[in-house]
User: Which sequence fits this backbone?
């Protein structure tokens, strides 16, 4: 069985497969092709891949049309779906709730598609959960990016010239990204506070040495996937009022709030930003899905009238591309290896399986994922 890893678009710093991970696919009996230049963003030469026994393809279209499995990070272009081999398997992030035309194209082209966003958050699937692995590194990168734009040190320093107070960091949203942001800011010596609509995460926040901020917004909860449920307009307003005072005292505010399959909720308004100190920094980790911060723009750093830097990087995991590539490639390998039959040399499919039933979007010319089908 042939598996192909095409090169990502130019602005993507990550690589879908590193040589050492590709070698593991060879060892389980797969024929592995990568597109020429796939690793150039990380200074990984074609020769390095070839030294591992991996074939380097210089004809992207031919490899797409002949491969049984195609894996990448980002969703493909529509014209590339049409090129893919019938009954082949495509695995990547697909944004299935918003990319209606893409999903229909997969179905019409009779291609099996797996969306990495839809890997369920269950114990058995943790090793395949690319959304979490990338969010984890994104949380780290958010703090590092904030430190670049902040004109203040993170830790408290006792000097002969006086004491420097620690940076105050406020993290909004305590999912995977938020927890890593808290941990990173604490390691850098900051004083950290955090808020989440789910009271159950308070213990996790405290275990990292941060203070959990309590704002009573009424009944909240989380979805089956472990994401925060969407708030009502009234709850969001109460939340914003409760956070305004904390933001005004914070040097760094990091927002991570996203609602699965929906636009990100607006959390930081212009009024709240105006209340912040000049020189403060806001990092909007949800900028690619609509943004938590009023005025944030994808891949831009905006300076507000009162001197607050608003950072809106769409691909924060790409800021630590080497590690992000390593864990994403491992996620792919673990998913493939879980369903790889070494004897028949085939990828087995059981749509009743607790993982595949959640992440397979199209199969045998139909949209089979219940959530995606309802949305489309």
Assistant:
């Amino acid at each position: 069985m042939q598996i192909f890893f095409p090169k990502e678009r130019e602005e993507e710093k990550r690589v879908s497969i590193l040589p050492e991970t590709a070698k593991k696919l060879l060892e389980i009996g797969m024929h592995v092709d990568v597109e020429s230049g796939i690793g150039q963003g990380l200074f990984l030469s074609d020769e390095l891949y070839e030294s591992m026994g991996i074939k380097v393809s210089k004809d992207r279209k031919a490899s797409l049309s002949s491969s049984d499995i195609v894996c990448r990070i980002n969703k493909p272009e529509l014209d590339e779906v049409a090129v893919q081999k019938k009954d082949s398997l495509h695995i990547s992030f697909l944004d299935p709730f918003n990319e209606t035309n893409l999903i229909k194209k997969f179905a019409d082209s009779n291609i099996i598609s797996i969306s990495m966003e839809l890997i369920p958050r269950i114990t058995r699937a943790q090793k395949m959960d690319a959304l979490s692995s990338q969010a984890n590194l994104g949380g780290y990168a958010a703090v590092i990016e904030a430190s670049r734009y902040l004109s203040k040190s993170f830790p408290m320093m006792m000097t002969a010239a006086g004491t420097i107070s620690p940076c105050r960091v406020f993290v909004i949203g305590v999912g995977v990204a938020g927890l890593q942001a808290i941990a990173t800011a604490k390691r850098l010596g900051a004083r950290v506070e955090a808020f989440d609509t789910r009271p159950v995460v308070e213990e996790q926040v405290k275990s990292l040495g941060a203070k959990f901020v309590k704002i009573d917004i009424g009944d909240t909860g989380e979805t089956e996937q472990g994401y925060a449920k969407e708030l009502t307009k009234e709850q969001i307003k109460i939340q914003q009022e409760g956070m305004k005072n904390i933001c005004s005292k914070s040097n760094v505010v990091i927002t991570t709030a996203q609602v699965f399959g929906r636009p990100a909720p607006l959390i930081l308004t212009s009024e709240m930003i105006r209340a912040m100190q000049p020189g403060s920094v806001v990092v909007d980790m949800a900028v690619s899905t609509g943004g938590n911060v009023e005025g944030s723009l994808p891949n831009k750093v905006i300076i507000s009238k009162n001197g607050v830097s608003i950072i809106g990087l769409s691909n924060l995991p790409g800021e630590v591309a080497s590690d992000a590539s390593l864990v994403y490639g491992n996620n792919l390998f673990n998913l493939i290896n879980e369903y790889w039959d070494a004897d028949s040399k085939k990828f087995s499919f059981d749509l009743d399986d607790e993982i595949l039933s959640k992440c397979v979007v199209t199969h045998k010319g139909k949209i089979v994922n219940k959530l995606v089908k309802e949305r489309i």
Observations:
- The chain has a mean pLDDT of 93.
- The two ends are 32 Å apart (CA to CA).
